Amino acid sequence: MLGNLEKEKQKLYSVLKRITPGDRILIEIPTKGTIKTLYLGWYPDNFLLTTLPPFAGIKRILQAEPDLTLRLLVDGEIYSCITTPFYFTFKPTGMLFLREPFKIDALNLRKVPRVNCFFPASLKKEKEIEGVLLNLSRGGAAFLLKEEGDKNKLSPEDEVELKFSLPNKEDIAIKGQIKRFFLEDNKPTLAIVFLANSAEDKANIDKIDKYIKNILTYLKS
């Protein structure tokens, strides 16, 4: 019987076998935003290879960023994974070597325009609670709690303020309502629905929508 790690590896490999050199990939660098690159190849159990984004200071930026998010479109689904850069070269052409990710997540575009992510975030009811956004849409988000004990401070139907930054450095502060709790990798996670009760909330929803559409437009073009 396959363990969880082996199942994730098989899922990853089934995706990588369906993409070809030249396919578009988006790389999200927390301090730089979203950059466009092309898939070049894959060496199983070792690394992925993409073109090296051509902008000033890329070497310094990559050395300072331990985690990058990759997004690619395959057969109508966006796949997202977290990976780490470990080598790059500029000659004869720019190439970026990325450690093979251990997990890949899928989103069916035919169902809902949502993207998986890994954005540091906080929510506030009475006190601020830290966590990470695991997915994001114009309608809501999944928020993984950093501290398991914080679950006891919250309840379904609670109204909260969610704060995070998009990779394009847009700061978001938006009101939402907790709809339910669930476990993600055995960690307590909240399903939050955004409340468009104010002009500011509606403006932030538009920013989120624009960010998601930009990802889809590039990957589908």
What descriptive keywords fit this protein?
Thrombin, subunit H; 221 residues; six-stranded antiparallel β-barrel; single chain; 14 strands; eight-stranded antiparallel beta sheet; 2 domains; globular; alpha+beta; Pnp Oxidase, Chain A
- Specify the CATH homologous superfamily of the largest domain: predicted glycosyltransferase like domains
The count of strands amounts to 14
How widely separated are the two ends? 40 Å
Mean pLDDT level = 83
Architecture overview:
The chain is α+β, with helices and mostly antiparallel strands. The chain folds into two domains: 4-108, Roll (Pnp Oxidase, Chain A), CATH 2.30.110.10; 114-220, predicted glycosyltransferase like domains (Thrombin, subunit H). It has helices at 4-16, 58-64, 199-220; strands spanning 24-29, 33-43, 47-51, 68-74, 77-83, 85-89, 95-99, 105-108, 114-124, 128-137, 140-145, 159-165, 171-184, 187-194. Strands 6-7-3-2-1-4-5-8 form an eight-stranded antiparallel beta sheet. Strands 9-10-11-14-13-12 form a six-stranded antiparallel beta barrel. Strand 2 and strand 3 form a beta hairpin.
Describe the secondary structure blueprint for this structure.
Layout: H1 4-16, E1 24-29, E2 33-43, E3 47-51, H2 58-64, E4 68-74, E5 77-83, E6 85-89, E7 95-99, E8 105-108, E9 114-124, E10 128-137, E11 140-145, E12 159-165, E13 171-184, E14 187-194, H3 199-220
Antiparallel strand pairs: 1-2, 1-4, 2-3, 3-7, 4-5, 5-8, 6-7, 9-10, 9-12, 10-11, 11-14, 12-13, 13-14
